Structures are given as structure tokens and as C-alpha cells.
Amino acid sequence: MTEEEAQGWLRERGWWEGTIGNRLRQLVGLVLEEADRQNLISAASRDSIWARHLVDSAQLFPMIDGARIDEAAPWVDLGTGAGFPGLVIACLSNRPMKLVEVRPLRVDFLARCVDAMGLTHVEVCGVKVEKALFEVPAGIISARAYAPLDRLLASASHLSDENTLWLLPKGRQGENELEIVRHDWQAVFHVEQSITSPESVIVTIQQLRRAAPPNRQGSHAGRKRSLRARNRP
User: Using CA atoms, how far apart are residues 51 and 104, in angstroms rounded to an integer?
Assistant: First the structure.
């Protein structure tokens, strides 16, 4: 996706003009300015920031259409870093947003962005994901470049319940990561193609719960019965 295509995609959805468009452009300015002081985004992606970061984040928002999600349940973004996707989603929606980020410089930057853009529905949480705790389970959990799926689910499952919708952008290893987690987790898993890159996907997860451990005692008893049967005269 080119920068022109990315801006056209936003324009088609009414997100290029008005308050939303102004906030998105302000966010781009804040990220580029801060990138001169800390490594927020790669140098190679600065010239493709609208496609690589803004639209890559914004494409998650239409994916909640039709989902039965409590409007009061927060959208929790893990490892928000430079603001993607969490701050982009916060520009598009007034849903309560929790940005979970442990690195102090990134926490300070996110807090400045929230204040500068007047995003009163956003809370920046400077804590490890494993130690984050909210009053109600997340309605939506997103994470971009945070961790492989197995580690991600293990570290953040306490923030969710079976009604939580997980939206997880992944690169070329996304489907391989999904096969690994199927051994330990039961859920409705789905993979969507990213609109920004043919090598990227978005893993969606609903009704997540840990898989039941194998019944080793029953399996052992079954083996004993089988041995007895073979030893009969």
C-alpha cells in the first residue's frame, strides 16, 4: 500500500477530514518529532508512516463491527510503544482505551500525546502486561509487535473473559504461531489478510479459554487394562 492509497483509504471512511483527520495528522507530527529523540519507528518507515503505521492500525477498527461487545468494556492495547495501534484507534472512537506500556520514555510520550490531542477517554498504564489489572474484563485486546502468540496469551489472558475479542496483527509467522497456541488454548481462531502488506495477517480470537489438560490417570488406567487383557491365557 502506497502513502496515497493509505490516505485514500482513510478518506473513503470519512477519517481524513474533521476532528478524526486532524487528530491523525497531529499524531503523525508527534511521532515524527519524537522519533528524533527516541527510536519510536524505524527510519525506513518514516516515509511510509500513513500506510505502515496509521492504516495498519486503523484497519482493526472495522473488525469490531457486528461483535457483541459491551460499550463500557475497555479496549486494551498491549505494548503500545509509539502509539500503534492504540492511539490510532483512540482517534477513531470514544470507547474507553487502556494503553499498556512499561518503558518509561514511551509511557511519557504516550501521556503527552493523550494530553495534546485531548483524548480524555484514554488511560496510559505504565506497567508490565502481566501486572496490569482492570475493574472489568477487556472488551477488545489488541497488540502489535508485542510478543509471539503463546507468550502474548499467557501474559494477558487474565485481562480477558470469553466475551473478549482479540485483534492481533502478525507478520509472515502469524499462522505458524497460531498452530503452536492451539495445543494450550481453545477458542474461535480466524486469520484475516492485512490490507497493508501481503506478508501480514490479523489473527482474531474469540471465546478464549485454556485447553483442558490430558487425563493422564485415565490414560494410565486404560493402558493397565490393555496389558491385563493381553496377559490373559
Answer: 27
User: What pLDDT digit, counting tens, does each position of 46-105 carry?
Assistant: 899 999 999 999 999 999 987 888 888 999 999 999 999 999 999 999 999 999 999 999
Residue type, 177: E
Sheet arrangement for strand 122-125: 122-125, 97-100, 75-78, 140-143, 165-170, 201-210, 185-193
Rounded to whole angstroms, how far apart are CA atoms 18 and 139? Answer: 27
Of 112, 122, 109, the closest CA to residue 75 belongs to 122
CA neighbor of 72 nearest in space, from 99, 95, 93, 90: 95
Considering the domain 3-212 in this protein, what is its CATH number? 3.40.50.150
* Cis preceding-peptide flag for 148 (omega within 30 of 0): no
Task: Delimit the domains of the chain by residue range.
Answer: 3-212
**CA–CA separation, 112 and 126 (whole Å):** 13
Q: For residue 128, give the amino acid letter.
A: K
Burial of 137 (0-12, 13-18, 19+ CB in 10 A): middle
Cite the DSSP H helix spans in 36-171.
49, 56-58, 86-92, 104-117, 149-156
